[in-house]
Amino acid sequence: MFARGLKRKCADHEEDMGGALAGFRAVPSYSLQRQSLLDMSLVKLQLCHMLVEPNLCRSVLIANTVRQIQEEMTQDGTWRVAAPQSTGRAPLDRLVSTEILCRSMREQDGVHPAPGMGDDHVLGPGSELSTVTSAQTPRDPQNSVWEMDSPRENRGNFQKSLDQIFETLETRNPSSAEELFSDMDSSYYDLDTVLTGVVSRAEPGPCDGLQGLPPVATPASSSSCKSDLGELDHVMEILVET
Amino acid sequence: HMFRDRTVTSSVSWCCFPLGVLSDIISTVEFNHSGELLATGDKGGRVVIFQQEQENKIQSHSRGEYNVYSTFQSHEPEFDYLKSLEIEEKINKIRWLPQKNAAQFLLSTNDKTIKLWKISERDKRPEGYNLKEEDGRYRDPTTVTTLRVPVFRPMDLMVEASPRRIFANAHTYHINSISINSDYETYLSADDLRINLWHLEITDRSFNIVDIKPANMEELTEVITAAEFHPNSCNTFVYSSSKGTIRLCDMRASALCDRHSKLFEEPEDPSNRSFFSEIISSISDVKFSHSGRYMMTRDYLSVKIWDLNMENRPVETYQVHEYLRSKLCSLYENDCIFDKFECCWNGSDSVVMTGSYNNFFRMFDRNTKRDITLEASRENNKPRTVLKPRKVCASGKRKKDEISVDSLDFNKKILHTAWHPKENIIAVATTNNLYIFQDKVN
Which top-rank group of organisms is this from (chain A) (predicted)? Predict the structure, then answer.
């Protein structure tokens, strides 16, 4: 069971990290599990679009879960903890996967990201992360999920995005796809003990790491992932001249 | 009709009368006001009505059994051309009207359209027409020499269902509830974001009485999950939400009941908080007690009884399957966490019942505070034998006859149950089996 009451602090407090690490040896890191939950939720949302209208209640609940995770990750997403058997890079790779999912959807529609200002080692060599300027209207990527009377284009976009997601997961890093889709039962029983035993999130520490991640206006309104998909909608609107 | 109120958890022995396999997944079960009729709706849009046999006074060991009375196709699949989406024919809810004459009336609804059906019996037919033969062919007029009055002759009972009203085009989102008002003239229909008020006679108009759709759909974080009229006050109804709140509204206050008269919500237990807290707090069903003094809500793990006079917490809470709390992530992954279980009261409001997994269903006696778990399955229950209580072993050493949590079959879920309004007779629907359990009268 996840060690309760464990305060999470920034990388600055090195001596505390020693103690904190001790509690992590037994279970996969919290952020790793949380990221898995986020990935699973995003896939669930994308898979909503079939011939029959998606269940709105289910979609809303999943989206709220995604928001909760993103809020928490925004507040303490800079916190680095080494997972037991991997280097400090592994949890960051997992954090990145969501960005790449969103980015690939944008790229597929011909929108090229602005040159990123991120640290390369954060994102992986050769990756770029676009900036999100405050001028962009933050829009919920799940907008199309809710709007029952939205035009067909939005559904089509999501269908294309869905294909892109799976494509990305397969080609980019086979092991990560396997992580997500194979051995789900056993890994998620571990997730159970970790995630359902977690107490409410600790106070966010000062965020001074991970310069590359784009600033977020408010936790509730947008994150870089949402804004990327919002940009997609924005572009589509321009293209169809609505 | 005297209602014997014995403690169902101990002295009542439940016997099983399986009604057989229905051809499609059962999606709703409802007794009528007398309990003589039991209606089921299924995923294929069909309604099957069972009727209780008249009591056999000589063989008093069982009340009448339920046999098929009528079957009809209520809804057909449709296609929304504007949105390029199918509209499922699955029957989401059936509600009976109280009987006013020889015919029976019920409302059935799918995601978009509500229909009023009239079910009537025909056991006589006119014979001896002047101009027609018995088979319907017209007689040669030159052969007609006398005048006679047709008479009614008995025939085999025929039960006919005919649609009397179709209430369509009023819901953008999926209808989850219908509820008939105590005035027996109006009813409400609720979808994910709106509730409409109808008059049973008028199909081309409905009044919107609740609208929680945000101006900006990106801000949507909460949906309506169930709604019901108060059994006695025709101006009062409640609706529940995906955030675990129940709002009681008074239609006299304003035309659009945007502001609730009462808000029922239990504060969250901080020690149980997780990413799944909101999902499991989502209310899947809300039912008033027959008395109208209480209401019951079902969320993923529990059943709560609320006193309408106390908004800040329920007066009773019953854990349905607390052992699932440590499995929430797996249940999220396989979507079981979104299963919508219903709940129901017995006729005297002393016992409540709800379903669970592995074809288990649970009863909670409010007076004795005892509970029982029973299983609806063909393998374990021979007809007319007494049901054995079941037990789930949450952790540790499994006793004999107990089932461990990891052996539970999450595909076998009991979402729909109904309790006879007067007797200890219950209807329990597994995926496509319907079971009737009655207490064994010695």
Answer: Eukaryota
Give strand pairing partners of B73.
B46
**C-alpha R_g of chain A:** 18
Find out whether B159 and B121 touch, Cβ atoms under 8 Å.
yes
- Largest Cα span, chain B: 92
Greatest CA span in chain A, whole angstroms? 57
Q: pLDDT tens, B333-349?
A: 999 999 999 999 999 99
A11 in contact with chain B, both atoms CB, cutoff 8 A = no
Chain B residues close to A47, C-beta within 8 Å: none
Q: What is the complex's ipTM, to 2 decimals?
A: 0.90
Q: Report the residue from B85, B217, B225 with minimal CB separation from A146.
A: B217
Tokens of B379: 């393998």
- Chain A contact for B158 (CB, 8 A cutoff): no
Q: Which helix (H) or strand (E) holds B331?
A: helix B328-333
Among B174, B242, B330, beta carbon nearest to A61: B242
Residue B183 and residue B234 in contact, taking contact as beta carbons nearer than 8 Å: yes
pTM given for the model: 0.71
Distance from CA of B2 to the nearest CA of A (A): 42
B221 touches A at CB < 8 Å: yes
Is B174 in contact with A61 (Cβ distance < 8 A)? no
Q: Give every CB contact of residue B339 below 8 A, 6+ residues apart in sequence.
A: B284, B300, B413, B415
For residue A54 the two structure tokens come to: 């998606």
pLDDT per residue as tens digits for the range B13-55: 677 666 666 678 999 999 999 999 999 999 999 999 999 988 6
